[in-house]
Specification:
The protein is of the alpha/beta class and 275 residues long. It is built from eleven helices and nine strands. It starts with 8 loop residues before the first strand and ends with a helix.
Length: 275
């Protein structure tokens, strides 16, 4: 699929802020028609106006992507009004980093619903509409879906699930002309990331301190480049790609680096002064 998206319909689930909004604006700059979904009507309207200011058409639907029955109904309405998607982009998700023992059953299930079930629900509703006519499905995971990180036991479980789901889905949909990609950004400056910072364990901060913070615009540009290069796994940022590659071929080195960061974060000031 070329960089010109004229006459293409792009569905963005979670399109009202952060990476979803940045991707919607990037597709709008390339001429796509946008269909935006999110829970907040006010933020959706702001994104619609931003997209249309770029000369693109956009429509919006309030949607809770974690509710499978609701997703099926809303998507049926969206398809009847805007047609089926040429590109489906799932950007719903988020994390609340905590120590494992502080994560109760409720948070664990909410994290799964928000990050994994949301992808499952939208793909279940729309994949049958895309089979035979082609298109691209993009599920947003995370670098934490490739590398488990201290403080993200629930989040990594969900995002590893998104990666596995996408791998299996890619194989099933390829004979029907539908491509599947998985987007795995590292820390990105978004409203969701700012919320994560509240109460983040010191060890988690230490592990992520060595990496740079991406902009949502940079992630969007990496996504479009990955789609145009027919990539399955799209990891924005040179540092993040290096980590993903080393994790695959030298996992013990990555463990050593992270364990060292965790150990230093757990030391008292007196311990550090005596080094």
């Amino acid at each position: 699929m070329a960089g010109d998206y004229q006459d293409k319909t792009v569905y963005v689930v979670g399109g009202s802020q952060g990476i979803g909004r940045a991707c919607a604006e990037a597709f709008a700059d390339r001429g796509a028609r946008l269909v935006l979904f999110a829970r907040g009507a006010e933020a959706l309207e702001e994104t619609r106006l931003a997209v249309e200011a770029r000369g693109s058409r956009a429509s919006t639907f309030v949607l809770d992507a974690t509710d499978g029955e609701s997703v099926r109904g809303v998507m049926e309405t969206a398809v009847s009004q805007a047609g089926p998607p040429d590109i489906l982009l799932n950007c719903v998700g988020g994390a609340r980093p905590r120590h494992f023992e502080a994560i109760d059953d409720r948070q664990f299930m909410e994290t799964l619903r928000w990050n994994l079930f949301s992808c499952w629900n939208t793909v279940s509703a729309l994949a049958p509409r895309m089979k035979g006519r082609g298109g691209v499905i993009v599920n947003t995971a995370s670098l934490s879906g490739l590398v488990g990180v201290f403080g993200y036991t629930d989040y990594s479980a969900a995002k590893f699930g998104v990666v596995g789901f996408s791998e299996a889905l890619r194989s099933e949909l390829k004979p029907h002309g539908v491509r599947v990609c998985v987007l795995c950004p590292a820390d990105t400056k978004t409203p969701g990331f700012e919320a994560e910072e509240v109460g983040k364990p010191a060890e988690t901060r230490a592990v992520s301190a060595s990496g740079s913070l991406l902009s949502s615009g940079a992630v969007a540009e990496a996504l479009l480049a990955g789609i145009e290069r027919d990539r399955f796994l799209i990891v924005p940022g040179r540092e993040a790609r290096w980590i993903a590659r080393v994790r695959r071929f030298a996992p013990r080195f990555v463990d050593w680096v992270m364990d060292r960061a965790v150990a230093r974060a757990r030391k008292t000031p007196a311990d550090t002064a005596n080094e």
